[in-house]
Q: What sequence folds into this?
């Protein structure tokens, strides 16, 4: 489904962040990336969808090389979910419906299964855990095939975390796959990579 | 028809000194209230006095050499100065901002300047310096203000909305989709002064060129015709300059792979 070959990235200031990273991800699979803060795990996720340039390496999604003009289409299939909540303005409903104004989702409709009162809540009033949940739900509503999750449940309380895990399990059972950056012990069955050691 | 609308008189040095008394009063108030603006005010007055006085003598010299190479030389000096001034405002300028501003101001002022000198207010010869220099000066002066505000807004929006932009790109937005609202706001910001001036011109204030012509004794009707054409030309120039500067900046900040140019982004955040 996803194949990462010899992915290498460095900055003059920090040196090599990851070198010759190889990884294969199959439908229904979860791979956890564990490593120190600032080691480049988030950048690795961004590199998979070409949001950051790399020194060398290739990414194949269903045997197709992920470069050039097909990137917006590819990013709608391989969805990088940043740990940063990108906006503070508007309501939860605005946040969930905004992506459907993009040309790539013009034929799709948002899934607003949350209760009406919560949908009308201002984003600025959400707790950290609620924001992560809304962020995850928005990504799932876009029907990606792979999720690249960057510490997606770190601020959630146990009950919300369980709901989030149920959603992710459902996504995996439907044939999706996940690469999950975390500092905590793995919460699902899956391969663990101690970043940046890929072997 | 040309006629002397009012009698003009020659201003003396004493008239300028009397005007300066008002600025000394303002500086005194600033000092008394602890506003710390007196130095800025005095510097601005001294600079503008020297510059405008020098301009009077320089223009008198230039107008004696009424040939096209003189026009191009003056235009070049004004263009470089306008570009240089326009990039001073953004607190965090990026590599290449001078060329972006220069190209935009040059193209926009060349288009509307030619349009003005050949079609809207045709001159004979087309470069007739006493007419052409003030007209082109007004066009350049306004486009530098527009570029300055536009660039400042564009850069601060990119820095402020970096995560939002990246979130959109990560979902599959194209670079053109994510930048459209930012460019729209930046152009709107650059055009605000001229649009505001156009909305109230004739109602709250008499525009600068019209004031000058009336004070010089020209017919108010003729002055208003000139002013209408100039406002239209300035509006078009500011719009074209802001479009140019926004899109050229956009192509510098975003790569073909629909992502940020990281190196440039780091310069402004």
A:
């Amino acid at each position: 489904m996803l194949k990462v070959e010899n992915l290498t990235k460095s900055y003059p200031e920090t040196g090599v962040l990851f070198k010759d990273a190889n990884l294969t991800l199959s439908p229904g699979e979860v791979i956890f990336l564990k490593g120190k803060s600032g080691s480049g795990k988030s950048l690795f996720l961004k590199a998979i969808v070409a949001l950051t340039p790399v020194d060398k390496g290739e990414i194949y999604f269903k045997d197709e090389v992920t470069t050039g003009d097909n990137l917006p289409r590819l990013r709608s299939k391989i969805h990088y979910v940043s740990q940063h909540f990108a906006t503070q303005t508007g309501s939860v409903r605005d946040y969930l419906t905004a992506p459907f104004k993009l040309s790539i989702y013009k034929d799709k409709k948002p899934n607003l299964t949350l209760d009406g009162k919560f949908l009308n809540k201002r984003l600025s009033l959400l707790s950290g855990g609620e924001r992560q949940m809304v962020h995850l739900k928005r990504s799932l509503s876009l029907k990606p095939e792979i999720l690249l999750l960057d510490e997606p449940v770190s601020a959630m309380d146990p009950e919300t975390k369980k709901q989030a895990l149920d959603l992710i399990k459902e996504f995996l059972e439907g044939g999706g796959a996940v690469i999950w950056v975390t500092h905590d012990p793995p919460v699902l069955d899956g391969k663990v990579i101690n970043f940046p050691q890929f072997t | 028809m040309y006629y002397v609308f009012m009698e003009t008189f020659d201003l003396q040095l004493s008239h300028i000194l009397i005007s300066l008394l008002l600025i000394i009063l303002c500086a005194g108030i600033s000092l008394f209230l602890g506003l710390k603006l007196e130095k800025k005010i005095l510097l601005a007055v001294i600079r503008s006095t020297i510059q405008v006085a020098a301009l009077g003598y320089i223009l008198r010299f230039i107008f004696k050499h009424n040939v096209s190479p003189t026009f191009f030389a003056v235009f070049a000096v004004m263009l470089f100065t306008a570009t240089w001034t326009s990039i001073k405002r953004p607190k965090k300028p990026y590599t290449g901002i001078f060329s972006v501003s220069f190209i935009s101001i040059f193209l926009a002022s060349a288009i509307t300047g030619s349009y003005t000198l050949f079609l809207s207010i045709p001159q004979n010869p087309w470069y007739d310096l006493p007419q052409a220099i003030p007209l082109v000066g007004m066009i350049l002066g306004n486009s530098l203000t527009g570029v300055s505000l536009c660039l400042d807004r564009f850069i601060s929006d990119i820095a402020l909305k970096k995560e939002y932009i990246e979130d959109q790109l990560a979902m599959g937005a194209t670079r053109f989709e994510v930048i459209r609202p930012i460019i729209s706001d930046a152009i709107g910001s650059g055009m605000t002064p001229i649009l505001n001036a156009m909305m109230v011109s004739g109602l709250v204030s008499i525009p600068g060129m019209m004031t000058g012509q009336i004070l010089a004794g020209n017919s108010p009707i003729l002055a208003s015709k000139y002013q209408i054409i100039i406002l239209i030309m300035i509006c078009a120039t500011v719009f074209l300059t802001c479009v140019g500067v926004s899109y050229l900046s956009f192509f510098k900040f975003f790569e073909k792979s629909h992502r940020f140019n990281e190196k440039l982004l780091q310069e402004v955040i």
Remarks:
- Chain A is about 30% helix and 25% strand.
- Chain A has a mean pLDDT of 88.
